[in-house]
UniProtKB/TrEMBL annotation:
Protein name as catalogued: Nucleoside-diphosphate-sugar epimerase
Species name: Microlunatus sagamiharensis
Domain NAD-dependent epimerase/dehydratase per the UniProt entry, residue ranges: 3-215
Start and end residues of each stretch annotated as Disordered: 264-293
Amino acid composition bias (Polar residues), ranges on this chain: 264-274
UniProt-recorded Gene Ontology molecular function terms: aldehyde dehydrogenase (NAD+) activity
GO cellular component term, pick one: cytoplasm
SUPFAM superfamilies, per the entry: NAD(P)-binding Rossmann-fold domains
InterPro entries: Epimerase_deHydtase, NAD(P)-bd_dom_sf, NAD(P)-dependent_oxidoreduct
PANTHER family attached to this UniProt entry: NAD(P)-BINDING DOMAIN-CONTAINING PROTEIN-RELATED (PTHR48079:SF6), PROTEIN YEEZ (PTHR48079)
Pfam families noted in UniProt: Epimerase
Length: 293
């Protein structure tokens, strides 16, 4: 299969590109910069230079492919205005990609997050929030899945709070960065709240499986660890960095504080049973042992 990929140099995207190439697919990847183009070319992908905001270019990339994996999203998570721009850009991009595939029966795989369900593990059957703000990403995903009624084999892979590799990435990576800046490995509240996680290589294998075989209009969970206590995550980070491990108020964590304080475990039981996907790489706590002092 010849696959058009956006966001192919991020933690997830680089693993997806490698996974596709390792399974005899070819990849055309969008590159915003010379550095990204060089990275993708070195990995073995064909490069399409341009920006996610260029919807005509996106249509051209999708039109030349047998399937599409949409992963691109802005990387400035500290600025609410930048996040809003990234959400809007992603929505327009996914719409353009999907429209190009209408009545083709070709696959479109989009990315989202696992939902938060108070008091229990979230599952693949739980809906995503679709209100204003971050919920607008959920609306983009739902619109993509609705293209199943228009001849697109669309599916969504929902990612947990931490997608990690080599001790880096996701919420755990943000905690590590904060610990280095502040001199304390902190957790909000009593630290018993749980964060789900997955190794990037395991997530990549699920994207490939969804691309190859997921039924139209379906959502899947790339969850390796259903939920590690944040206090345990902070303890590994503190030990690796030689820093004290302490509870801190949510304000210590900046704009992520309220989200960090939430208990948000998630399950991939249905995904594993239905698609035969199995996470095989190190879990979150084991991978954090690779954090460099």
């Amino acid at each position: 299969m010849h696959v058009f990929v956006t966001g192919g140099t991020g933690t997830i995207g680089s693993a997806v590109v490698a996974e596709l190439l390792a399974h005899d697919h070819t990849v055309l990847a969008l590159a915003r910069s010379d550095a990204s183009a060089a990275t993708l070319g070195a990995a073995g992908a064909e490069v399409l230079r341009g920006d996610l905001s260029d919807v005509d270019l996106l249509r051209r990339g999708a039109g030349s492919a047998d399937g599409v994996v949409s992963l691109a999203f802005g990387r400035d998570y500290g600025d609410p205005a930048a996040i809003a721009r990234s959400i809007a850009e992603e929505g327009l991009a996914v719409r353009a990609l999907g429209e190009q595939l209408v009545e083709s029966d070709r696959p479109l795989v989009v990315v989202s997050g696992t939902p938060w369900i108070p008091g229990r593990l979230s599952t693949e059957a739980d809906p995503l929030p679709t209100g204003e703000g971050l919920g607008e990403r959920g609306a983009t995903v739902e619109a993509a899945l609705a293209l199943a009624d228009r001849g697109v084999r669309s599916s969504a892979v929902r990612m947990p709070r931490t997608v990690h590799a080599d001790g880096q990435g996701g919420f755990a990576g943000l905690l590590t960065d904060l610990a280095r800046r502040t001199g304390v490995s902190a957790y909000p509240g009593d630290g018993t709240q749980r964060w789900p996680a997955v190794h990037a290589a395991d997530a990549a294998s699920l994207f490939r499986i969804a691309l190859e075989s997921a039924p139209a209009g379906t959502a899947w969970h790339a969850v390796g660890d259903e939920g590690d206590a944040v206090r345990d995550i902070a303890a590994v980070i503190g030990r690796r960095l030689g820093l004290p491990v302490e509870a801190r108020p949510v304000e210590h964590f900046g704009p992520f504080g309220p989200i960090f304080a939430m208990d948000q475990p998630s399950s991939s039981a249905h995904t594993q049973q239905a698609l035969g996907w199995r996470p095989t790489h190190p879990g979150q706590l084991e991978d954090l042992e690779l954090v460099q002092p």
